[in-house]
From TrEMBL:
This is Glutamate ABC transporter substrate-binding protein. It comes from the Bacteria. Residues 41-263 form the Solute-binding protein family 3/N-terminal domain. The keyword Lipid metabolism does not apply. Transmembrane segments: none annotated. Residues 1-24 form the signal peptide. Belongs to the bacterial solute-binding protein 3 family. It comes from Actinomadura sediminis.
């Protein structure tokens, strides 16, 4: 049967009403946008080859400080472990994975930076790390970051660490591209790189496994944020409440000690100053 004009108009009106909540979710308090605070399930991006932070085990499960932090936050958002799907987000794919909706949240040694803030809303930080440098065994004369001039350093695609040395510090090191920090560490162990300069937590995670010397010259604040889709301010606020709680109830301290207690790093166990949800 062909729809008459009035019937078609009525159908259009019904469809318009149905479409509104899906797009704008108009509630009594005004328009609301989709937020991860309402998710029944969460897909969370983590690292897969950074010991102590995010490692993918042979059985496909993930383990590490970031994984535990993410699991805690999800729990506070009402999502239990069986409704979390972890997936690997290397440094090069993080912004794009969030923008494309492939992940709901990223907890992956993800420093909050001005450039990234243009594309991502960051909750947190949930921890503040500091950049330090691991040099290959036997390499003399590298005692602070300036000594990296002329040295081959690891440059992980999408990561900020090598930029901190070359662009921010103006040190004329030679960047050599690698896809992940795991690959950098293998290269360092083979003698193919002079140094890996990155967050002290990342270096601490590898220190037990690999050769090399940490020079102990920390020179940045790496504010580890929880990346969420740009504009999800309600989700960001909910994650910040979860992070505050994680410090208040002793979970943050327990997790830091569990994963990094033996590292020799000075661990900060008070809630970090939040950046604000923009
Ligand atoms: N935290 C630094 C960054 O976000 C280095 C670690 C990483 O790339 O995951 O760039």
């Amino acid at each position: 049967m062909r729809a008459t004009r009035p019937a078609a108009a009525a159908l259009a009106a019904v469809l318009a009403v149905l479409a509104v909540p899906a797009v704008a979710g108009c509630g009594i308090g005004g328009p609301q946008r989709r937020t991860i605070a309402d998710n029944h399930r969460l897909v969370i991006g983590v690292k897969e080859d950074q010991p102590g932070l995010g490692v993918k085990r042979p059985d496909g499960t993930y383990a590490g400080f970031d994984v535990d932090v993410a699991t805690y936050i999800a729990g506070r958002l009402g999502v239990p472990p069986e409704r979390i799907e972890f997936t690997t987000t290397n440094s090069s794919v993080r912004e794009e994975a969030l923008a494309a909706g492939r992940v709901d949240m990223i907890v992956a040694t993800y420093s909050i930076t001005a450039a990234r803030k243009r594309k991502v809303t960051f909750a947190g930080p949930y921890y503040v790390a500091h950049q330090d440098t691991l040099v290959r065994p036997g390499l003399p004369g590298v005692d602070d970051v300036r000594d990296l001039a002329g040295r081959e350093i690891c440059a992980v695609t999408g990561s900020n660490s090598w930029r901190r040395v070359i662009e921010e510090r103006g040190v004329a090191a030679v960047p050599v591209r690698y896809p992940t920090y795991g690959a950098c560490m293998e290269a360092l162990a083979r003698g193919d790189l002079d140094a890996v300069s990155t967050d002290d937590l990342i270096l601490a995670g590898f220190a037990g496994d690999g050769p090399g010397r940490i020079i102990n010259d920390p020179f940045t604040d790496e504010k580890y944020g929880v990346g969420i889709r740009k504009g999800d301010v309600a989700g960001c606020a909910a994650v910040n409440r979860a992070i505050t709680r994680m410090y208040q109830d002793g979970t943050a301290e327990r997790l830091l000690r569990e994963w990094f207690g033996e590292s020799g790093l000075e661990l900060t166990t008070s809630v970090p100053q939040f950046e604000g949800c923009t």
